[in-house]
Amino acid sequence: MEAAVPEFAAVVRERFGAYRHHVLATLRTDGAPRLTGLEADFRRGELWLGMMTGSRKVLDLRRDPRFALHANPGGGTDLAGGDVRVAGRAVEVTDPGLKARYAAAVKPPEPFHLFRARLTEVVRTSVEPPFMKLEIWRPDRPLRTLRRTSQDPELLEGPERPTSEGSGGFGAP
Question: pTM value?
Fold first, then answer.
């Protein structure tokens, strides 16, 4: 994302950096979603997910690496900086040197598990009166912007229309 859309990536990093704790969604063994708090960290152009040893979210991600992460919206309802969510696959970091460098920089409680996020979708929602504005990025695709109102639900800028697949149901197939 950093190389493809650097300005959008900066907005996403800033949004996640505004608060320490965010909400992670993983999949339980029965396929039901599990929501848990998480400290997420953007470093060196990547999203890192640190977790307590043996936590359920670690077990979930080891079994099925798919996840979604919602940035803490903060207080109030103005959504300053927009509302950001990301989805992808978590890859556990097993290299002791890399974990040690991360621990030296972040100082998490030890022992801990560390995952590197491979993002498959990033969505920023903001208000641009009279519109609700959605910016959607996926690897190897251009950043798309969708503006919606209750009177005109689909006004799209960009080369393609979003489909209901993977975009939270926005757009027509």
Answer: 0.82
User: Whose CA is closest to 62, among 119, 115, 117, 120?
Assistant: 115
Distances (CA, A) of 33 to 4, 42, 80: 30, 24, 28
Q: Left if phi > 0, otherwise alpha if psi is -120 to 50, otherwise beta: which for 107?
A: left
Give the tens place of pLDDT for each residue, 96-155.
999 999 999 999 988 999 999 999 999 999 988 888 899 999 999 999 999 988 776 455
Q: Span 6-157: which CATH code?
A: 2.30.110.10
What the block records as the tokens of 58 is 């670690």
Between strands 112-128 and 83-92, the pairing is antiparallel
- Domain extents in the chain: 6-157
- Read off the tokens for 39: 């400290």
Amino acid, single-letter form, for residue 96: P
Element (DSSP H or E) covering residue 22: strand 21-27
